[in-house]
Fold this sequence. Notes:
The strands form three sheets. Strands 12-11-8-7-6-5-13 form a seven-stranded mixed beta sheet, covered by helices on one side. It has a single domain, classed as Nitrilase/N-carbamoyl-D-aminoacid amidohydrolase (4-Layer Sandwich). By secondary structure, the chain is α+β, with helices and mostly antiparallel strands. Helices cover about 25% and strands about 25% of the residues. Helix 4 (about 115-125) runs parallel beside helix 5. It has helices spanning about 15-25, 25-40, 80-85, 115-125, 140-155, 215-225; strands at about 45, 50-55, 55-65, 70-75, 95-100, 105, 130-135, 160-165, 165-170, 175-180, 185, 195-200, 245-250. The chain contains six helices and 13 strands.
Amino acid sequence: YVTMNLLHLSTPGNSPRMMMEELADRFEAIRDVYIRLASTYQIYIVGGSTPQQRGDKFYNVSLLVTPSGGVYSQDKLHVTPGERKSWGITPGEALRIFDTPLGRVAILICYDIEFPELSRLLALSGVEIVFVPFCTDEQSSFLRVHFSAKARAIENYLYVATSALVGNMPFWTHSSLNYGRSAILTPSDVAFPTGAELGIADPNVETIVTSELDLETLALQRELGSVTPFFYRRINLYNLEARTPLEIIRAN
Length: 252
């Protein structure tokens, strides 16, 4: 929830559900900020997630915005008990893949990275980079997301870029603390950094982690690496199939 800081504009004493509704009212304004920034700097933006109201339901949504003004979205598919009970968030139903001039990418919001089936489905569909915006309130929660993201990068030969919410919100007693470290994660092989990290932020510091991702090396290592898990899957013993077809979207 990248817009969490806007909760200081909420009416004092509001319930968590009412606060989510107020954030959802600002969804279009937040989207327009992303559009303006992407156009001004000619960059692709994967925004941290924010609530969106559709009909009478609220979803946790991350946006992909292109330099030309294209706007695409990914709902959070696995909703935590707290989101469901306190905030009234509904899980999404579609897993999307975005074909961009920079590579085939996908977005898994926070808890979604802890479900390995999603990342494997994406990898089998040719995804090269997975973006993971996340919000965790303590170190143990952060480590759960971080280790899951690192495992997904290693087992699927993917790049995984995690973006953490950091800072404190003493004005909101429901979730006043955030602990996080953004990171750019890689497979664990000789062609990649020892530790499978291209970069990682200091804990709980507002900062930027940057790196160049070599997609040619990634493709080569998927076929010729020290281990090649895609070629050694025992599909005679097990299989993975999406019940709902993945949506492949051209995002220019």
